[in-house]
Amino acid sequence: MRKLRIVGQRELRTDAIAKATGRVRFTADMRRKDMLTGKALFAAYPHALIKNIDVSEALRVPGVVTVMTAKDLPGRNGYGVMIQDKPVIVESKTHYEGDAVALVAAVSDEAAREALRRIKVDYELLPAYDDPREAMKEGAVRIHENHPVAEDGNILVTLKLDRGDVEEAFAQADIIIENDYETPIVEHCYMEPDVCIAEPDPLTGGLTVISPAQAVYANRRSLAGVFGIPHNKLRVVSPLVGGGFGGKEDSCLDVSAMAGVLAVKCDRPVYMELTREEVFRTTGKRHATYISHRLAATKEGKVLAVDVRTILNKGAYVSMGGMKEPLHAVTMRTLVYAAGAYHVPNARARSHSVFTNTPYACAFRGFGVPQATFAMECQMDELARRLGMDPVKIRQINMLRHNDRTITGQVMLESRGLGLGECIEKVAERFGWDKALPAAAGPVKKGKGFAVYMYGTGIPLLFEGSNCYAHLQLDGTLSLAVSSTEIGQGLNTVLAQIAAETLGIRVADVVVELSDTAKTPDSGPTVGSRSAVLVGNAVLDACAKLRERMLTVAARYMFAKTDPRDITIEDGVVSVIGKPELKQPLSAVAAKAYASQVPLAVVGSWYPPQASFSAEDGQGNPCHAYAFGAQAVEVTVDVETGVITVQRAVMACDVGKAINPVNVEGQMEGGSAQGLGWALMEESIMEKGVMRNPTFHSYMIPTIEDLPRLEPIIVEHPNELGPYGAKGVGEPATIGMAPAIRNAVWDALGIKINVIPLTARQIIKSVKEHEQGR
Amino acid sequence: MRKLRIVGQRELRTDAIAKATGRVRFTADMRRKDMLTGKALFAAYPHALIKNIDVSEALRVPGVVTVMTAKDLPGRNGYGVMIQDKPVIVESKTHYEGDAVALVAAVSDEAAREALRRIKVDYELLPAYDDPREAMKEGAVRIHENHPVAEDGNILVTLKLDRGDVEEAFAQADIIIENDYETPIVEHCYMEPDVCIAEPDPLTGGLTVISPAQAVYANRRSLAGVFGIPHNKLRVVSPLVGGGFGGKEDSCLDVSAMAGVLAVKCDRPVYMELTREEVFRTTGKRHATYISHRLAATKEGKVLAVDVRTILNKGAYVSMGGMKEPLHAVTMRTLVYAAGAYHVPNARARSHSVFTNTPYACAFRGFGVPQATFAMECQMDELARRLGMDPVKIRQINMLRHNDRTITGQVMLESRGLGLGECIEKVAERFGWDKALPAAAGPVKKGKGFAVYMYGTGIPLLFEGSNCYAHLQLDGTLSLAVSSTEIGQGLNTVLAQIAAETLGIRVADVVVELSDTAKTPDSGPTVGSRSAVLVGNAVLDACAKLRERMLTVAARYMFAKTDPRDITIEDGVVSVIGKPELKQPLSAVAAKAYASQVPLAVVGSWYPPQASFSAEDGQGNPCHAYAFGAQAVEVTVDVETGVITVQRAVMACDVGKAINPVNVEGQMEGGSAQGLGWALMEESIMEKGVMRNPTFHSYMIPTIEDLPRLEPIIVEHPNELGPYGAKGVGEPATIGMAPAIRNAVWDALGIKINVIPLTARQIIKSVKEHEQGR
């Protein structure tokens, strides 16, 4: 293998300057005056029967072009990322606050808003559920009368995993740790609210839908039937995306469905934008979970078994929740990661995904894994504490090693022995784990916490594979087209690096086109920390083909009697190895290829090994590659105010190979910040299906002021199947923070708290209960 | 070969309804309020030195953002379709009326116009040439002092062809026909004036250029250096094109260059649109020619030799005129077609392309071939007349037959004996050539005329090859992307038919994306009647690959133990041949392929055999396939008013295979109309470089009222290398009309006129001279 010149370098992101100077155009910047404005009348009550809708007064508002109810839809009234169970406009019943009851298109925002006010809806209220444990009880009112895949009343699905002999293991155990954990409903809080431009195309009779989507092809598959438009006439475009974190898999589908049916109905372009409050109330959220976790171990600290029951708050619709077929999704991941990153020979896990009247729960950075890992990492800390062992030591004893089997039975070929071990060691060393914290004076207590995790790259069970279109230009520059979106994660820089490394040009010579079904092949959705690996491999395939063609042309026409294997391309210069005087610019070789009937456009593809996962017992190889990580934090807790401050965070992640280290560090820092928010402050507070804090005044997220010094450490144990060894990093980075903080708070206060977020109110309450309990 | 189901059908054009109902968007429809308006100050004098330019007053006009002169340009001040000799803004000298002296960008049209009025230019006048015969004389003022490729003073190039022994043949001849012919400068008169939107892309630092271009990749190659932007950051888009006829190869380059440099300078989007008068004065024209033609024949009517000297009015710049390297272009074609569609064993041809101060001459439907054929077909009529032979008979005696050699020495493998012969026979038969015309009474005389022609498909000497991107969608529909443009010729319908036939779907299931360098591979320029064949073959290649993949998947997964060769796809249904009950929709097979890791996106390519043409003697195989045609017209001529009316026109064209017969007939009808305009009325009248009729009030083109009954006949002698046998038809269709009309006028009046257009003024003058001559 050639020495790497570009992969592994700290490249400035290709979009950095244009974004930092505010000059790029997002979807909202493309609004034109000739577009109608679309608005939705959302459900006034989260769970209610709709007895009557009267839109006659709304239609009389000057400037209103149409008012649509379900009966006016052009196609199928259902869509979704896995199953088409979410109606564009509900027909006779609301399931949550975000259900659209009617849609309006008007020539101005004012007219549209006035029309919304004049729509009269008669509701008959039903009891609304916030808590899946209530909704799954016998006698609960069914939220979906005829849901296509719900298994039992409000229980969407129950998935299971069984490995070894759990009963026997618990019987043999020296120690059993048993706890209930709770994690909250969380909003993605992407910067750019959901927005869509839907514009009929008179030439094809189709529609162009522009929105900051994470998955243009998945959106098209889901929406084609809603609009009644064939795939090749439904152009789905995702310009730059102002953050998504998994949420814009669904939310852009929501807004696109609404804007799209209005555009089809009116046969005019429609612009639709959600307010921030609408984003809070209507779009998908992270699954809240209720986890009952039992862990059996020997007195030497070896974990023998886990027995885990997870109840997931599905909210109103399936989204990326989980079904039996296809299996991959959040619910299934709570099984796979029920024992965290440890070698646990016996495991039983049951996960119930249950409908409630809260916003549908969907993909959210790490989907399912942060919740499962939170529980397991809390358990491990308690195990260490009960055995009087060091929390790091207990993790080292149990961590997955090369050739170990996970609780799905997958043999760990990934870590080559030490991916996780090296992360633990490096974090402990950098953090100075062995040194005691200096004592804190007065009401401010200090503590430190540790956590480890693993995370599988991609979504192989749902479907995997990636295609890329690459076009070498006559001046030696390269155009790449993939359907994956630059969502702020730096993907396009990483792909440019892979392309530049493979072909032998500079990063500056690569342009990655924006995602657009009319011009990019299907490289899959931008989810699951899959893009660097899956799409990167497709780019590598395409560029390797182009490189080979260029070497062949150079050998044949430009360096007579030279073997192509003796030619190289670096920085856009084609030269004979060892004879630097024999060289040509790549542009000259490309021009020669062009004139010599050698195509300069190629499609590259990559597919991972087929994944497996049994619905019977949760056994199989659900992912081809796993990233590993470790995290340590130091916190101070003011027992009088309840305020927790994270003073320091050290994190290591085995990313296989950091294509762009600065980007990987950015992901680790951003993921830690998001994990910190999840641990300390973020929560959508629901009250009978009504969100009580749908604004940034009442819903807190971390600002730069809330962040500690973040110290990312990159560990590289190559993924043999990844491009230049890479594994995914986007989601892994967010997992470790919450359990590390919770464990540090226990360390600081000596109080065990099993519920996040650890708000000031929660801390004061726990301190009070603890004091009262004494 | 499977029975054809779609190719050969009279398909409704896929863009027919959207265009007929006026709903599609052309470039001008994309203008936005936030765009600056760009305008050019064109040369006040066609040939002058620029002594000084003062833009200070112009810059003071409120709303003016910039005024650019040559010194303000961001990159190379030169571009062109073959050589970069046309400046964006002239520096010190004007060469024709269309030279830009300065450019203005302003927030309104009014401000821009006011700024133009306030620019002060001091000129020093030079003599201006309209006639290349004057410009090539010794002592003429040089129009380009330092032209990069001009051979001798104002002579751009002299090309030659020599075959056999011309002197000997003339010595042996029984009869020699010798005449001078003249053809005019003609404007393309496309409906849509030239227009461009140039918009900086802050994300890449590049530029997007939208204009109704015929050749997005060629434009990009030419403009990248002008803007100083790499190819992959210069996105060139051609939406629907409102006619081009070869003109928009150059004219869109002109307007794009001007709008682009303004956009780069201002770093803001710029909209620029030429007025119709500007289109007349500044854009390219058909080469005027002055042809001295000598023809030697036996008394039996067998042509022994031709000796032809052609002087082409190049106008101010090279454009598609001709050079020694690359050789292909208009000038060279006047050699290749100097003997028309006949087997002539001895030939000498000299063609001089000469700079003048008229608008640059460029590609125009048939480039060079109509002019050369006009002269030869006039000669042949005179030969028949002098020998007392029938004009059809003389053509049958001399026509190219299978295995004959052309005057370039190319062996005619194309016509399989009878492509041309069948055209002649069918036209004569349908027209009723043998029947005498009924005598006309009074001043209105009647006559009939005949002409034949041949035309090589494509531009192989310049470069040939075509690439296509094809994406089979999961619902069984297909997206195609090529850089060739739908210019009104019906290309996208033809490509959809080829794709549908090859893959086995319906035409309605195919979408051909609009031309855009960011999404379509390079399929070459939309010129030279090449697209149906060259691009069609690339589409065929791509769809054949997709079909094979689908058959393989169906055989492997859906019809167990079936050989892929026993499976077919028709109308989107995949079935086992002979077992109609074994079938699956293509969408199901595509979905299975998708799930089975079979890529659904492919690049298709096609390259014709390498062409050849010697600069030494004009010998070689300049084209891989030739279309043939014959045309007969009946005219009436009013000798008092001079008005010629074409009463009837029958035309046959050997198109190899008519992919869409209604489209082919449309091309034959449209080409005939354009040929009629050339013959009877169209001419840009120049006076010392100044155009005297730059409006549709003074420049006449045929309307529907001027057209006779048009009777197209399709003849099909398959091109073995063409998709389903096709050859090009767009340009051939325009060649036959002018010589047929001129010959008919001679028949009607008994007066030989060797100059077109045959305006009423010309007829009256000729009749008067003829009467005086008696």
Describe the protein.
The structure is a homodimer of 774-residue chains. With 774 residues, chain A is of the alpha+beta class. The first copy, chain A, has 3 domains: 16-23 and 465-606, 2-Layer Sandwich (Aldehyde Oxidoreductase, domain 4); 31-126 and 188-282, Aldehyde Oxidoreductase, domain 3 (Alpha-Beta Complex); 289-460 and 612-771, Aldehyde Oxidoreductase, domain 4. Helices cover 28% and strands 25% of the residues of chain A. The first copy, chain A, contains 18 helices and 29 strands. An 8-stranded mixed β-sheet of chain A has the order 3-5-1-12-9-10-11-20, sandwiched between helices. Chain A has a 5-stranded mixed β-sheet with strand order 7-15-14-13-8, sandwiched between helices. In chain A, strands 16-25-26-29 form a 4-stranded mixed β-sheet, with helices on both faces. In chain A, a hairpin with a 5-residue loop joins strand 13 (288-297) and strand 14 (303-315). The N and C termini of chain A lie far apart (65 Å). The interface between A and B is large, with 54 and 53 residues.
